[in-house]
Write a structure and sequence with these properties.
The protein has 343 residues and is of the alpha+beta class. It has helices spanning 51-59, 89-102, 106-119, 125-128, 138-144, 149-162; strands at 4-10, 20-25, 29-38, 41-50, 121-122, 146-147, 166-172, 175-181, 191-193, 196-201, 223-226, 232-242, 251-263, 270-278, 284-293, 301-310, 316-323, 330-335. It folds into two domains: 66-226, C8orf32 fold; 232-335, Immunoglobulin-like (Sandwich). The protein has six helices and 18 strands. Strands 9-10-8-7-11 form a five-stranded antiparallel sheet. Strands 1-4-3-2 form a four-stranded antiparallel sheet. A four-stranded antiparallel sheet has the order 15-14-17-18, with no helix packed on it. Helix 2 (89-102) crosses helix 3 (106-119), helix 2 (89-102) packs across helix 6 and helix 5 crosses helix 6 (149-162). The longest helix is centred in the N-terminal third of the chain and has 14 residues, at 89-102. It is elongated and about 80 Å long. Mean pLDDT is 84; it is low at 9-17 and 68-73.
Length: 343
C-alpha cells in the first residue's frame, strides 16, 4: 500500500464556512480532499488511499469489526481493537505526523484531530450503507467522508493513538465517544480512571470542544475501555483422528485445529502444547508434544494439521494450550473415543 498526504493550514481566515469533502477515483487510488476549520483558520488535507485497501475492508465481513457471533451474549475479547488494524495504520501514522507538524502543543494536536473528525458528515448506517449496522474501519470513513458515532470514534482513536495520546473509549447507552488525558486541558467534568482525569470528546458535531458533554449524555453512565492493540486469536474448531489401538500400543494420530486471527496485527511465536491424559486416580500422561506454529496475519483463518503418537485408552482426554506473543493463552479440551480393535 502506498499513501500520499498533504495538509495545508492557512493562517488567514478565508471564505470557507463549512467542511467540504470530495473523492476522485483513479485506477488504483481514491484521491480524497477534505477541508474544515480549526480555530477560525481554514485547513485542508489531500490523501491517496489504495483501492485494494479500501475494498479489503469493505468486502471482507470476517474482520473483527464485523464479528457479532458472541459467546453467551458477550462481545469477543478485545473487540474494539479493530480500530487499530495494522493495514490502515500507515495511513493514520501519516495523518498524525502531518497534524503534529502544524500543531505545536499536545492540546492543539488533539484539537486539530478532533475538529477534522467532527467535520466529516454524520450519517446513520441505514442512510449511508442501507444496513441497520455497518462498522467502518478508519480508512473506510476517510474515503466515504461520513459515518456514525462508532465510525468517527474509530477514526479519531486511530489518529490519536499514532500521536501517543493517552486515550480511552467511552461506551454509553446507544452511543460512543473518546476520553483523553491531557495536562493542558481544563474542564469541570471528567472521568477518573486509574487515578487520571480523562475528558470527554464528542465526534458527531463540530461545536463540541474537549470536555464538553452533550446534554443527552451529560448524566449517562460511561464505561471506560482502554485502547488496546493486542491481537484477538480464536480457536474455532478442534478435530482429532486416530488409528484404533490395542492396549499399550501407540497409534498414529492427527490433530487439526482451526485458528482465526481477528487482529489487529500479526500473531507471532505461536506455540501449542498437547497432552493426552487417561483420567483416573493419577491422571496418567499417555503422550505429550510441543509444536511451533507459523505466524498468523491479521484477518487470516487457517487450519493446522499436526501428528503425534499416543495410547488411546478408556476415559482419555486431549488437552491443548495455545500461546503466542501478545495474546492470551487459550486452553481447549477434547474427549477421545476408544476402541480395542484395529481398523
Amino acid at each position: 500500500m502506498s499513501f500520499r498526504l498533504h495538509l495545508i493550514i492557512l493562517f488567514a481566515v478565508a471564505s470557507l464556512s463549512v467542511s467540504a469533502h470530495s473523492v476522485m477515483e483513479g485506477d488504483d487510488y481514491y484521491e480524497v480532499e477534505h477541508s474544515w476549520k480549526y480555530k477560525g483558520k481554514d485547513c485542508s488535507i489531500t490523501l491517496n488511499i489504495s483501492k485494494n485497501l479500501y475494498n479489503y475492508y469493505r468486502n471482507d465481513r470476517e474482520h473483527l469489526a464485523y464479528v457479532y457471533q458472541f459467546n453467551n451474549g458477550e462481545m469477543p475479547p478485545n473487540y474494539y481493537s479493530f480500530m487499530l488494524s495494522e493495514f490502515d495504520r500507515p495511513v493514520m501514522q501519516s495523518i498524525a505526523k502531518e497534524f503534529s507538524r502544524y500543531a505545536h502543543s499536545e492540546k492543539d494536536r488533539i484539537e486539530l484531530a478532533l475538529t477534522f473528525v467532527q467535520s466529516l458528515r454524520y450519517a446513520f448506517d441505514t442512510d449511508s450503507k442501507g444496513k441497520d449496522e455497518y462498522v467502518r474501519y478508519p480508512v473506510e470513513t476517510l474515503v466515504d467522508g461520513c459515518g456514525d458515532c462508532e465510525d468517527k470514534v474509530a477514526l479519531l482513536v486511530a489518529i490519536l493513538y499514532e500521536m501517543d495520546a493517552d486515550i480511552l473509549l467511552l461506551v454509553l447507552p446507544e452511543h460512543m465517544a473518546v476520553g483523553v488525558h491531557c495536562d493542558e486541558v481544563e474542564a469541570s467534568r471528567y472521568l477518573l480512571f486509574r487515578d487520571k482525569k480523562y475528558y470527554y470528546m464528542e465526534t458527531t458535531m463540530s461545536r463540541w470542544e474537549i470536555g464538553d458533554i452533550p446534554g443527552d449524555y451529560y448524566h449517562a453512565e460511561m464505561e471506560a475501555v482502554p485502547v488496546d492493540d493486542t491481537p484477538t486469536m480464536l480457536v474455532k474448531g478442534v478435530r482429532f483422528e486416530s488409528q484404533t489401538t490395542l492396549a499399550y500400543e501407540k497409534a498414529r494420530c492427527e490433530l487439526q485445529i482451526d485458528l482465526d486471527n481477528l487482529g489487529p496485527g500479526k500473531v507471532t511465536d505461536l506455540r501449542l502444547h498437547v497432552r493426552v491424559v487417561e483420567l483416573g486416580n493419577r491422571n496418567r500422561l499417555l503422550a505429550e508434544e510441543y509444536y511451533q506454529l507459523e505466524d498468523l496475519q491479521e484477518g487470516v483463518s487457517r487450519t493446522d494439521k499436526l501428528s503425534l503418537k499416543s495410547l488411546i485408552k478408556k476415559n482419555c482426554i486431549l488437552q491443548m494450550e495455545l500461546y503466542g506473543n501478545e495474546i492470551e493463552p487459550q486452553y481447549n479440551e477434547l474427549k477421545l473415543e476408544y476402541s480395542r480393535t484395529r481398523r
